[in-house]
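Box 3.1 A note on notation
Throughout this textbook, protein chains are presented in two layers. The first layer is the amino acid sequence; the second is a token string describing backbone geometry. Keep the layers aligned when reading.
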Amino acid sequence: MIYTVNLPPETEKKLGELVRLQMAILGYAASTTTPEQQGLIRYLEQNEYESDHAQRIVHALCRTSGDRETSVRWEQLCTFASNMDGEKYLANNVVGGMTLQAEKQRIVEAMKVDTNLIFAPTSTTGFMFFMPEVPDQLPDYLAASKAFLQAKLDAKSQQKCKFPLWLCALRNFLISYYELLGENIPGGYFTDNEKHNRQHVLTAYANANPGQYVCAICDEHSFRTIYDSHQLSDLEHYFPKSIYPHLACHPYNLLPICGSCNQIHSNKDPLWDKARSQRRMLSDIFLPYRPGSINADTVMRPPDNDAEDQSISFYVVDSSIEAEIQKKIRVLQEVYRIPDRWQEKNDEIGDHLWRRIRQFLADDLLMVDTVDSPEFLQRRLHRLLAYLSEDRGKDPLTFPTLWRLTQMLIDEVDPVADGNVPIGQSAVFQEIIHWIAADQDRVDQLDAIARDLRDKATEVKRRGRATGSQAIP
């Protein structure tokens, strides 16, 4: 994470309530091989759900659409409860499938632990349930699922989901609620009986993070676009929903980000250390909506222009957490390719910075004595640095730009202002001298451009056509 962002309380409440309900419903399904709607109602009532709410939940769950006799989610729930794929792989098989049922119950309990953990993560803990399609990476307690998956892989199965049918149904059941979020999750699921959807999530996020206009992951693009009061944004699953389906709707796992980050992330698991072939703890990675970010904890060192190694490095402000933050930065690089993506735009960032400097100093550059006063230029660039700092999260690539300006001040401007380096030996001052000569020749041209734009706008206003869609002759 480049920036720390806030989770809206209303999103935490609504989606948190939904996730806990999902776990309760699955708790019932794992306790029987023949689910019944009345049985689910009684189970919910026994688990602290009011009778009226329990009935609304089951009604919403079983509500059909079109010509279907039963709802897709109820069918998925029944498949999870009744299907016995993989039972034959279990040693000491117990008559009636109780051993496989115990595996299902263990999964639900593990998911409950995970969903509670992410509300209050601890430093020495990881998730208990995850389902990558790699047998050796599955939790040990998934004995039947491991063996079933391995058999499918050995047989070179072309099935989209190679897990046991009941586990595929479990994943589909959980993910279906995320898909439903794109339309409307019915109010019947919630205590307040109010529906919830993607627009609620995005609007609440924008309200909880005023002034955060760029993607909190990369600082490179806007995270949303708006038309007709309708917000469009990629809603990132920080922990991929295919591997962690129980987190598909978890409020702490949904983050509005840019399309580039979502595409680059793809299905990579931030908790899987590929180099060491082992799982990471939650403390090893940046977490959305939690304290700690590159912006808050580090200083960026841009590459020197003449250095052979053009890699960007980060220095942790608090040395006591140096190892911890560097570990998290490595994961960010692995999953989102940050800061490598900034390095690919090194020239663009440099050009952006020079244009900002030139525009900021436009009037000053027309004063011949500006270059003869390095201290004046130093003060002005310090002011620009402060403005850039205030713009973090607002304009694209502000974070790498401000640290590049900081380095320019330290390496090029300060030595001249302090009298340690002659002006003629400073690349920055030589560039400014060139600007002065160029801009003095362009003053009339620039003024003409500005006058032309103002004249067009004035004419449109005079005609009452300030709609943006009217052609200007």
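Residues 93-98 have pLDDT under 50 and may be disordered. The radius of gyration is 29 Å.
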